[in-house]
Design a protein that fits this description.
single chain; about 250 residues; alpha/beta; Nucleotidyltransferase, domain 5; 5-stranded mixed beta sheet; globular; DNA binding; CenT-Element_Derived
Length: about 250
């Protein structure tokens, strides 16, 4: 099966002469200041309780990550929630931040592109397809292609391959930080996250994410029909597991 979005990217970017060094994909994901997953804790035999220092802080920092089809990545943009120290009142990206990201992207890739057009694949968030964003992209000689709704889980390399590895490593780094220093603060986030992404985003990981989505190397059959199929029901029980009182039974 040839997925139509892969074909659009190929025709809009690759056939336009944009080589892997000038082909980029951007996506955002949230990272908590504390660890928000489950873990197995091993303690002394016979102990009634086992304690581990940690934090209940679940505040989210949004990170905009950009990868290149040549196996490299750009310094991420961090969006903190707040009004003074932070740059987003909600903690998520908005139109002003999107324009700031595009200016930063242009500065980071201009020399590498050598004056040639760059391709940037983004999600279809309103701020990424707004007229102001697209006008600025044209001014910077950047061609923007947006993923269709509800397809980033199969078409966006960061979602498909990179973010899962990054969040696993993030949990490890946060636990180690909390063990040594106590709860993480906003001021600590940048150092720990930069250490995490540097250790995680190897050229092999990034290249595999492009390959899995069929964008580079171009493979129109990489996204199969089963990956886009609706979720199947898991339950095979047609009745309640135990008898229910009336009027349910009736």
């Amino acid at each position: 099966m040839s997925h139509w979005f892969t074909d659009i990217v190929y025709k809009q970017l690759i056939q336009a002469g944009i080589d892997p060094r000038r082909l980029f994909g951007m996506d955002e994901s949230g990272f908590t200041l504390g660890v928000d997953d489950t873990e197995v804790v091993i303690g002394r035999r016979g102990a009634k309780m086992t304690y581990q220092q940690g934090t209940a802080n679940r505040e989210i920092v949004t990170v905009l990550v950009t990868i290149c089809a040549d196996g490299t990545w750009l310094p991420p943009l961090l969006v903190f929630k707040g009004k003074s120290f932070a740059i987003s009142e909600s903690g998520w990206t908005d139109s002003e931040i999107a324009l700031g990201y595009l200016d930063a992207f242009n500065a980071q890739t201009l020399e590498k592109a050598g004056g040639l057009m760059r391709g940037l694949i983004v999600d279809n968030q309103t701020s990424h397809v707004a007229p102001a964003f697209l006008r600025l992209a044209i001014e910077h000689n950047i061609r923007v292609v947006a993923y269709p709704p509800h397809t980033t889980h199969v078409a966006q390399g960061l979602d498909v391959h990179c973010f899962a590895a990054l969040k696993r490593r993030w949990a490890v780094e946060v636990r180690e930080f909390e063990r040594l220093h106590g709860p993480m603060r906003k001021a600590d986030f940048c150092e720990v996250f930069c250490r995490t992404i540097t250790a995680t985003f190897t050229p092999e990981l990034i290249l595999a994410s492009w390959e899995k989505t069929g964008i580079h190397p171009y493979n129109p059959n990489a996204i199969t029909a089963d990956k886009l199929a609706p979720s199947a029901a898991n339950s095979v029980r047609g009745t309640f597991p135990q008898p229910q009182p009336t009027p349910v039974r009736a």
